[in-house]
Design brief:
The chain is mainly alpha-helical. 68% of the residues lie in helices and 0% in strands.
């Protein structure tokens, strides 16, 4: 049941049009760099993540990662 739910959600996220200026976790997951960082967090929740270590996973500079993450999620 959980696998089916994940499949449905992934399909919905991929097919949903993201309006310009939209923010939120679904929007962030659609961005490959930010999605890579979020996946890294979920693989190792106990790790003391820093902006720099997340930026490394996203293959972005710290400043670029921070700006993009904030813009896409609407959170700091």
């Amino acid at each position: 049941m959980q696998a089916l739910l994940l499949y449905i959600l992934r399909s919905w996220f991929e097919e949903s049009a993201t309006p310009a200026g939209a923010t939120g976790w679904a929007t962030a997951l659609a961005d490959p760099a930010i999605s890579a960082a979020l996946q890294a967090i979920h693989r190792d929740l106990a790790r003391p993540w820093t902006v720099q270590s997340l930026a490394d996973h996203a293959h972005l500079s710290r400043a670029t990662f921070s700006r993009r993450f904030t813009a896409l999620t609407g959170r700091r």
